[in-house]
Amino acid sequence: MADPKGFLNHGREVAKSRPVEERVKDWNEVYVPGSLLPIISKQASRCMDCGIPFCHNGCPLGNLIPEWNDYAYREDWAAASERLHATNNFPEFTGRLCPAPCESACVLGINQPAVTIKNVEVSIIDKAWETGDVAPQIPERLSGKTVAVVGSGPAGLAAAQQLTRAGHTVAVYERADRIGGLLRYGIPEFKMEKRHINRRIEQMRAEGTRFRTGIEIGRDLKATDLKKRYDAIVLAVGATTARDLPVPGRELKGIYQAMEYLPLANKVQEGDFVAPPISAEGKHVVVIGGGDTGADCVGTAHRQGAASVTQLEIMPRPGEERHPTNQPWPTFPMLYKVTSAHEEGGERVYSVSTTHFEGDEDGNVQWLHLTEVEFIDGKLTPKPGSERKIPAQLVTLAMGFTGTDRENGLVEQFGLELDERGNIARDGDYQTNVPGVFVAGDAGRGQSLIVWAIAEGRSAARGVDRALTGASDLPAPIRPTDRALMV
C-alpha cells in the first residue's frame, strides 16, 4: 500500500484553478497547468488500501484504484499508467469529466474527505503522455472479420479500440465532421481541451482503426447497406433526443436546446467560425436545467460576455452534506455542487418552473415567466402568488435526453426493438434483436455518465468478439442491466 499513515498525515488537496477573472477571458482548461504533480504523491498516499476497496464498486470500469494510487505515491509513473490502462481506455477523459462516483464510495470518505482519486488519475495519464508511456497497441494478427461502429463518443471509441486490438478490422462512422461525439461538440473546451481527443484518435489510427466522418447512418448510408458490408455492427449513437419545454412562447427566436448552442462555441475553437452564430454576448441568459450540461451552458455564456446568467432548476436545492439515511455511504449522493462555471458568477434558482415566454414585436424572446413549486402529496405543485418574470434574451434548454434519435431512420431500417424507456433493447451480450447488431452506451442504457459509456463500450466489444470468433479474452466490466449504486 501507499503510506500507512498517509490519510492521518495529509489532508485532501485538489487541483488549483486559475483565477476567475483570467480564465473567463479564454477557453483553456480552468486548472493551473502542472499544479497537481507537486502534491499528487501525498494525495495518493491517503489511500488506505482497505480490505474491501469500495471504490471498485463505485466505478463501473472496476478501476484498480489502490494499485495505481500506490504507484503514484512511489512516482512509478510507467507502472501506474499500465494499471490505469488495464481497465480504462481513456483515463484523460474520465479524469477530467467524470463526477467520480469512486470518490463517493471511498472508505476514507466515511468520516474524512475522500481520496482525490480523479486528480491522481489525470496526473498519471498526463505524465504517461509526457514520458511516452502511451503507445499504439497493434494486434499481432488479424481475424479477417470486419466491424462497423456507429458513433464516436466514449462508448463507440472504447468499443472500436478494444475490437481493433482483438484483431478485427474496425471502421467508425460519425455523422459530425469530426470524431468525438459529445466529447468533441458537447463538452466545452474549458472542461477538456480537444487536443486530448486528437491524441487518442491518432493512437487508434496507428493501431488500425479507420474513421469515416460526415456520414449519418439512416440518411447518408442505409442501415441495410451497412449490414451487408460488415460482419458485425456496434451502435453507439447516444441518446440525443433532447427533452423539450412545451409552454407558450417556445417558438420565439432565441430559445435553443443546449446541444444547438454548445457545439457552435466549440466550432469556434476548431477554427470553423470567427464568432459563434448563437452568442450570449451582451444578453441576459437563462439556462433551464441544473445538471452538468446546464453548467456547461453557464460557463460558455460567461466566456461569450453575457450581461447576466441565471440557471433554473425545478427540483429543490440539494444538501451540501451526505444524508446518513437517505443517501448513505457508499451510494452516489445528490449534493449541491459548485462547478468551475458556477464559481465564475451567475445566479442559481431552485424549485421553479417555467410557465411561458414573452417576446418583442419581432418575435425575439425577452422575458421568461416562472412560478415557484413545492412538493404536495408527492407532486410538484405551483405556489399561488409566486409568479414572476426575469429577463431572458437567450434561453438554453438543458433538461436531459429522452432516448436515441428516431428521425434519421436508423432504428426503423435495422428493425430494432426498443425498451419501455425508448432505448434500443439488447441481450446480455449487448446484441439487439437483429443478429450481428449490437448496442453500447446511452443508446442502450439511456442518458448516463462517461465512465458508464466507456464500460459499456468495453463490454459490448467482448460480446462482438465472442459472436465473431466463438470466444473472447476481452474484459466485460458491466452487464447491460447493471446500474449505479444509489438509494
Quick structural gist:
One of its GO terms (molecular function) is oxidoreductase activity, acting on the CH-NH2 group of donors, NAD or NADP as acceptor. The protein is an alpha/beta fold and 487 residues long.
How would you describe this protein?
By secondary structure, the protein is of the alpha/beta class. A hairpin with a 2-residue loop joins strand 11 and strand 12 (379-382). The relative contact order is 0.13. The protein is built from 19 helices and 16 strands. A 5-stranded parallel β-sheet has the order 3-2-1-4-16, with helices on both faces. A 5-stranded parallel β-sheet has the order 6-14-7-8-9. Helix 3 (37-45) crosses helix 5 (65-73), helix 6 crosses helix 9 (117-131) and helix 7 runs antiparallel to helix 9. It has helices at 6-9, 20-23, 37-45, 55-58, 65-73, 77-85, 91-97, 101-104, 117-131, 154-165, 182-185, 195-207, 223-229, 258-269, 292-303, 340-343, 410-414, 442-445, 450-469, and strands spanning 146-150, 169-174, 210-213, 232-235, 241-242, 255-257, 284-288, 308-313, 347-350, 352-359, 365-376, 379-382, 388-391, 394-397, 401-403, 437-439.
